[in-house]
Q: What sequence folds into this?
């Protein structure tokens, strides 16, 4: 019975997006007629959003030792410092300089969404300052996954684009995969699957593009999610037994295609 | 003798079956799939898997014109192949602009289902656009069957917008009934570039000078006339001969740079089919002498141009080499032939002393662990405990860059696919290890200059037996399968950077010159260093 609220949360988080297109297909005779080149643009937008969210996660990952340092009060991990590192990380990973978006080839919507995601990410870091600078406390639970979840929630509220961190067996039940996500996660879990390559779908009877961006275990991840499998980590969860570089879930993007 | 008889049967059977109106009782050539004529001079586009491993390929038009075809070019990644038949004056299909294909629009699939003689035309809609890994397809809800593979999908104007493929696997592994996948025609651009004077400007323009009000019957006739049946004789090993091994985009007018959506289509590196035998000492010595001679020649040319060789760097002449290893780890397969332009690479790894100068110059951050760095006794030792970004910053500061993975490997092992810089003998490793444990090098790092035993054929030192070295490329285990055949720069993106080489204490498999290590670019360690490279002007 204790699980009921979680299950409801899971239904809300994972259930509605897959139900929505179905309803659309039935009620709307005016089915979408989006050309292929637009779909490619949408796919790129979704992929870049996933990379940007993951870049933010990676910056938190890189600063984990600093954030967990009980001796330091002011850690200097300000929203501005974070933003600088985020832009560097994104430039390295996506080859795109966020400072020069205006002159680039990205669509206006894509540019807007990327900028919005930077803003939201900074807000999450800004709001976490008190928590992060608490002296005397070591591990504060501010890890890439927590950062990612907070950013995703805000980003969805602001833009309507859903970002979700998911895995086949996630610790947070709200991140449990829906059927589309499960199928993609199973493909990623195959060690022969090409690294960093996405799985995406834009169906004629749907009103949104779906994209899955694979994530890989880093050293910091392994502190909690590595071996020995089943052993308890510092937060009390059983370890997953992941190894360095192994697929460790995905970022799921649901990008509504506006009328 | 038996072989000759079989060959005779193979030669005559198709001709007879072509004349007869009934299906031959024992078809020697297996119906494999369908294709579409893309140029009147006998060029046919089909799916790669239809003709893969075919010893002989025959195309049969709907008018029962039958002719042997050769493979001009393939793109295995997108499952496309271009065939050529020695003829002229075929009816060619119009090609459409894939970017304009809309979700839910009506499309027509044409093919020879189950390899039957009768052509089938089925209608459907574009139900979805799907991407999985390196493949992107239109999902079409037309009824298609195995023989449709490689056949065209037309839009309502009768333009080819896709080629049916079965190689795409639905992420769920289940293909819903009445569902088919087609590769967008835009991915065929690099293959079409092999056709002399192919008119790319005609794509999406429709038939020039043709009246618009064409009847449906005319459209059907046209679709039928431009589609072909493909039959193959398979062999169990080795693919058919490719007359142009690489689908090279036209380069004379720089058109290839104007095709951003297809530039990732690989120019497949020539895979090396015959196993490369491990060369003995004699052969190693001979190759070493050749390499040194070519290096001297290149160096002389360089100096003759009035240029000064950079200090403590080694010139690696332009040319091909064998990269990867078949009997190693999966990510080093396949062994493949690559062309790398000339470059300079540091003779030794960057030392603590050299790195200190950069730190004092304000351009580099101190190593993450500074014990070794601060030890004045170790100024000549390789710098360690540096991240990928620190390595890159140093190389930039000295006006150089990190080497690519291919550059590192060529400098380490030369051109002949040897296992180690010195040859193929494991003995060197055993001896060096013994020395190391006798000595006082605690962390497996030798001072520079010592391991001359591991010098590469070009005279580069310490690539094996010192530290693991950061190189420029992102890591992807499948990169060799799609690597360009010329100056590869690694995957476009990634999470890990490649590390090459390693200390004597690594496992033997990891001491091969083909071994590909990797780690997070923000990671550092006592056995992680680097060296720099620079272009030859």
A:
């Amino acid at each position: 019975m204790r699980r009921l609220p979680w299950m409801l949360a899971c239904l809300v988080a994972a259930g509605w997006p897959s139900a929505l297109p179905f309803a659309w297909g039935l009620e709307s005779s005016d089915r979408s007629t989006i050309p292929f080149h637009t779909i490619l643009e949408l796919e790129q937008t979704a992929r870049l959003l996933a990379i940007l969210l993951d870049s933010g996660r990676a910056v938190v990952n890189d600063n984990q030792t600093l954030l967990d340092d009980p001796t330091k009060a002011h850690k200097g991990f300000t929203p501005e410092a974070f933003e600088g590192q985020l832009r560097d990380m994104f430039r390295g990973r996506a080859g795109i300089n966020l400072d020069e978006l205006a002159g680039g080839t990205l669509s206006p919507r894509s540019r807007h969404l990327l900028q919005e995601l930077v803003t939201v990410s900074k807000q999450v870091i800004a709001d976490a300052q008190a928590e992060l600078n608490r002296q005397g406390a070591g591990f504060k639970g501010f890890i890439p996954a927590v950062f990612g979840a907070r950013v995703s929630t805000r980003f969805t509220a602001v833009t309507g684009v859903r970002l979700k961190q998911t895995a086949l067996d996630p610790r947070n039940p709200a991140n449990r995969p829906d059927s589309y996500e499960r199928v993609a996660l199973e493909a990623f879990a195959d060690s022969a699957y090409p690294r960093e390559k996405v799985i995406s779908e834009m169906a004629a009877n749907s009103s949104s593009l779906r994209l899955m961006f694979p994530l890989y275990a880093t050293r910091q991840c392994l502190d909690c999610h590595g071996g020995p499998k089943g052993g308890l980590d510092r937060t009390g969860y059983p370890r997953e037994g992941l190894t360095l570089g192994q697929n460790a879930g995905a970022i799921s993007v649901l990008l509504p295609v506006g009328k | 003798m038996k072989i000759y008889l079989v060959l005779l049967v193979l030669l005559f059977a198709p001709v007879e079956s072509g004349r007869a109106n009934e299906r031959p009782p024992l078809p020697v050539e297996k119906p494999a799939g369908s294709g579409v004529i893309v140029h009147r001079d006998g060029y046919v586009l089909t799916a790669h898997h239809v003709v893969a491993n075919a010893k002989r390929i025959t195309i049969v038009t709907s008018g029962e014109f039958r002719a042997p075809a050769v493979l001009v070019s393939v793109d295995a990644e997108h499952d496309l192949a271009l065939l050529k038949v020695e003829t002229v004056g075929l009816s060619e299909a119009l090609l459409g602009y894939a970017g304009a294909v809309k979700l839910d629009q009506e499309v027509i699939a044409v093919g020879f289902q189950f390899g039957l003689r009768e052509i089938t035309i089925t209608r459907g809609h574009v139900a979805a656009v799907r991407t999985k890994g390196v493949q992107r397809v239109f999902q079409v809800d037309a009824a298609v069957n195995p023989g449709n593979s490689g056949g065209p999908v037309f839009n309502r104007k009768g333009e080819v917008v896709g080629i049916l493929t079965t190689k795409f696997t639905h992420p769920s592994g289940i293909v819903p009934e009445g569902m088919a996948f087609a590769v967008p025609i835009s991915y065929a651009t690099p293959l079409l570039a092999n056709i002399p004077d192919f008119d790319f400007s005609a794509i999406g323009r429709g038939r020039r000078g043709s009246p618009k009000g064409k009847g449906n019957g005319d459209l059907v006739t046209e679709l039928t006339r431009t589609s072909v049946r493909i039959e193959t004789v398979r062999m169990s090993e080795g693919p058919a001969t490719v007359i142009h091994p690489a689908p090279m985009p036209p380069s004379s007018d720089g058109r290839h740079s104007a095709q951003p959506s297809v530039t990732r289509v690989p120019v497949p590196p020539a895979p090396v089919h015959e196993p490369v035998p491990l060369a003995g000492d004699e052969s190693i010595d001979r190759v070493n002498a050749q390499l040194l001679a070519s290096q001297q020649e290149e160096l002389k040319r360089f100096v003759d141009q009035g240029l000064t060789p950079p200090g403590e760097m080694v010139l690696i002449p332009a040319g091909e080499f064998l990269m990867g290893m078949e009997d190693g780890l999966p990510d080093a397969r396949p062994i493949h032939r690559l062309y790398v332009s000339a470059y300079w690479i540091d003779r030794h790894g960057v030392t603590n002393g050299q790195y200190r100068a950069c730190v004092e110059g304000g351009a580099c951050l101190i190593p993450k662990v500074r014990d070794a760095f601060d030890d004045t006794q170790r100024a000549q030792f390789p710098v360690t405990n540096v991240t990928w970004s620190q390595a890159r910053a140093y190389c930039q500061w000295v006006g150089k860059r990190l080497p690519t993975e291919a550059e590192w490997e060529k400098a380490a092992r030369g051109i002949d696919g040897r296992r180690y810089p010195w040859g193929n003998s494991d003995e060197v490793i055993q001896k060096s290890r013994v020395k190391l444990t006798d000595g006082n090098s605690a962390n497996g790092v030798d001072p520079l200059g010592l391991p001359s035993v591991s010098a590469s054929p070009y005279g580069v030192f310490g690539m094996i037996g010192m530290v693991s070295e950061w190189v420029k490329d992102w890591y992807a285990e499948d990169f060799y399968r799609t690597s360009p055949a010329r100056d590869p720069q690694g995957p476009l993106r990634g999470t890990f950077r490649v590390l090459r080489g390693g200390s004597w204490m690594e496992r033997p498999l990891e001491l091969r010159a083909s071994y590909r290590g990797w780690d997070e670019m923000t990671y550092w360690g006592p056995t992680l260093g680097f060296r720099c490279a620079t272009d030859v002007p």
